[in-house]
Amino acid sequence: MTSTLEDKLVSGKIDTRIGSITLEKGLPAGAGDSKKLFDELDFQRACQTYLWALPIVSFAEWQHQHENVFGAKDGQLVIYDNYRDKLGILTANATTPYIMAFANLLRTGPLVIDFPAGPMAGGVGDFWQRSVTDMGETGPDRGQGAKYLLVGPGQKVTQTEGFQVVQMPMNNIMFGVRSLEPDPQKSKALIAKLAIYPFSEREKPSTAQLLSPAGKSWNQGQPRGLAYWERLNSILQVEPVEARDRMMMAMLIPLGIEKGKPFSPDNRQKELLQQGAEVGELMAMNFSFNKRFEGAKYRPDANWVYVLEMKDPNQEDENNTQLDQRTAWFYEAVTASKGMMSRVAGLGQAYLGSYHDQHGNWFDGAKTYKLRVPPNQPAKQFWSLTVYDTRTRCLIDNKQGIGDKSSRMPELEKNADGSVDLYVGPTAISGHEQNWIPSIPGRAWFAYFRLYAPTEAYLDSSWPLPNIELIEDAK
Length: 475
What we know:
Elements: H1 5-11, E1 13-16, E2 19-24, E3 27-28, H2 31-68, E4 78-80, H3 83-86, E5 98-104, H4 105-108, E6 111-115, E7 120-126, E8 131-136, E9 146-151, E10 164-167, E11 172-179, H5 184-192, E12 195-198, H6 226-236, H7 246-252, H8 267-289, E13 305-306, H9 323-332, E14 349-354, E15 363-364, E16 369-373, E17 379-389, E18 404-406, E19 420-425, E20 436-438, E21 444-454, H10 456-459, E22 469-470
Parallel strand pairs: 9-10, 19-20
Antiparallel strand pairs: 1-2, 2-3, 4-5, 5-11, 6-9, 6-12, 7-8, 7-11, 13-14, 14-21, 15-21, 16-19, 16-22, 17-18, 17-21
Helix pairs in contact: 2-6, 2-7, 2-8, 2-9, 8-9
């Protein structure tokens, strides 16, 4: 018969997963047992708050990189239009250019985004990576362009005629957009029409230079170790606390992070925070690469999964915040919007991920794999296969600077039936060099299959996408 807790309390000792706890009169017997329990409590809190904080730390780090590596000011646009400059972005696509800006509305006041008409997709999010509004094809302007006015907490604007007013829930904002124009010159001209400026300068807005990473080494992924908590503390100090986050904020207090107070953890707290960051990241990694969500598979006949499991860009379900779903996504990716979750044929984007070969093994950079993309690909605009390094969750950093293959590449070889055979491996298979993505021996990788403006055959899962298969006799 299994003994009850009452029996154990009487016995004078309880064997737990953290070791034996000695009892005296039914209570922890001494300082050593008390410390063991407090250390475990605070370690668990560090792990859980690590998972909770992933989205806000990611954006805070990206803003830090913009300001300190690129020299960008509030609202200044940075363009990522080549492979090298995109290497610092979590699971970036390698096909379209990104244009990004961060701003602190406390410093700028209400901010105007002059969004041009044309084939662009983007929007504005807060630092919890919640989409506040889409812009462009899936936004209120429906691709016709508009002037969006971002108003921060506590800010007031009366003269709003001619503006799409967007009330921001946080002081720090992220603006991001992708040009979907396939012609490079037209795309460049479209991007040049974008403008961001304070509302107070609306009569004569200044023109800021469009910045580029210019090949600099950088990374917007969440920093590791104590730096993770330093970045978290810095952003929490300047943002309002929402009702949904008050319990997590309470968990941080014994770890040395409290709003309105300096972050100066003692040695015990530092050790627990570092341990929590390590185990927390392993938990996040497991969420991402071993998805356990019900209905995660695209189809039962292959191991492709929906990587964006959140059903709402605000990360809320009927009775809970989608903590696990946002952990899985924001560990390996950035931003979420209505367009990225579109279930309307011909609008938005779709994302499928693959982390294992046909045998259930991780993809090995020393081996060669093949994906046959079936004909009649369900994408109104284009599709792409992109490969990422599992350690960085960024584009694979091979010497060729090749991390994807897409239907926009005229050199892509196609089969007679319209299918396409793609290869990932350390060396190209003779005769298929145009369809090859180079991998790196000693490094694992995973893949995203993107569909831009997905059609009904994707939405109803009638279009098959087979496994990425290990080629045993690759030459």
